[in-house]
């Protein structure tokens, strides 16, 4: 009977400790829970403006999510890019220029600006450069195959890939040009294919630090702007790289059973063990109460 009373007292005390622990979960850990946008899981190094705090991501990796949450948008100087794929293991993503989504006639895209990456944040994957040209004079016959098919003014007249031998001639008869990175799956392309190339997008790799160590320890990665350093946000508090290791629940239960099997149950010792297991284990109360046989 005395053992049963000790069990009840310990379970009640566990409830109290766990409730106190839950109320003290670090707010940065709570704030940096992963979010979803357009079917993508958004977590470090990215963060969604308006939905997540800036410290949940790496500087310069802010995303926006459209009002209907259809797709995440990456902001690169002078350009917005739609994210098609995110691979956190390889730290890569496939993007395409948001101008593709703007209303346009067949073959006519809104102006696409040159892309300029910040080298400390992103690098191109395997890409080719597609040169778009406009304000062209009368075209010689050999350049007609590069015409985009845009009807009316304001669009791109020609689209030529960078390794094409006709590129220099095309640039000689056109006044305006811009370069768009594309994922070229085969050799030279005709001008009519440039819509498909721009829509397919291209790969980017990011350089922000790896989050694996922090995540494997139960934390959520983030960034401390004051010190300008990576942080691992954990339930107790932020740490430099990983959360502190947790005491195994099975070890706690084993110690419990050894003590309870003795003739004299030391309540003070039991409470001390309970406090240690509650503080250093994320496991719930149910397993403690189920020690009772």
Automatic annotation (TrEMBL):
UniProt superkingdom: Eukaryota
Keywords, alphabetical: Glycoprotein, Signal
Signal peptide: 1-24
Any Pfam family hit: WAK_assoc
Domain Wall-associated receptor kinase C-terminal: 163-237
UniProt xrefs under InterPro entries: WAK_assoc_C (IPR032872), WAK_GUB (IPR025287)
GO cellular component terms, semicolon-separated: membrane
Intracellular or extracellular location(s): Membrane
Catalytic activity entry: L-threonyl-[protein] + ATP = O-phospho-L-threonyl-[protein] + ADP + H(+); L-seryl-[protein] + ATP = O-phospho-L-seryl-[protein] + ADP + H(+)
Enzyme nomenclature, EC number: 2.7.11.1
Single annotated GO MF: protein serine/threonine kinase activity
Recorded topology in the membrane: Single-pass membrane protein
Domain (Wall-associated receptor kinase galacturonan-binding): residue spans on this chain: 32-96
UniProt name for this protein: non-specific serine/threonine protein kinase
């Amino acid at each position: 009977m005395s053992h049963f009373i000790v069990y009840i007292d310990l379970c009640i005390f566990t409830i109290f400790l766990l409730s106190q622990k839950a109320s003290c979960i670090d707010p940065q850990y709570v704030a940096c829970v992963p979010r979803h946008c357009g079917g993508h899981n958004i977590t470090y190094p990215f963060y969604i403006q308006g939905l997540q705090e800036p410290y949940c991501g790496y500087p310069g990796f802010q995303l926006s999510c459209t009002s209907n949450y259809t797709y995440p948008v990456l902001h690169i100087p002078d350009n917005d890019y739609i994210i098609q794929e995110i691979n956190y293991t390889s730290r890569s993503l496939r993007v395409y220029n948001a101008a593709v989504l703007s209303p346009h006639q067949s073959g006519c895209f809104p102006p696409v600006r040159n892309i300029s990456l910040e080298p400390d944040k992103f690098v191109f994957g395997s890409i080719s450069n597609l040169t778009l040209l406009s304000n062209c004079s009368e075209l010689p016959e050999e350049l007609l195959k590069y015409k985009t098919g845009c009807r009316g003014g304001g669009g791109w007249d020609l689209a030529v890939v960078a390794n094409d031998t006709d590129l220099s001639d095309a640039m000689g008869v056109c006044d305006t040009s811009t370069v768009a990175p594309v994922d070229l799956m085969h050799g030279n392309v005709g001008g009519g294919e440039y819509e498909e190339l721009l829509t397919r997008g291209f790969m980017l790799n990011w350089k922000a630090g790896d989050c694996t160590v922090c995540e494997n320890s139960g934390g959520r990665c983030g960034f401390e702007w004051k010190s300008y350093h990576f942080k691992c946000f954990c339930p107790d508090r932020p740490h430099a790289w990983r959360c502190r290791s947790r005491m195994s629940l099975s070890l706690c239960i084993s110690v419990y059973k050894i003590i309870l099997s003795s003739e004299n149950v030391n309540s003070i010792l039991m409470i001390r063990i309970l406090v240690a297991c509650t503080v250093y284990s994320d496991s719930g109360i149910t397993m403690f109460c189920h020690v009772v046989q």
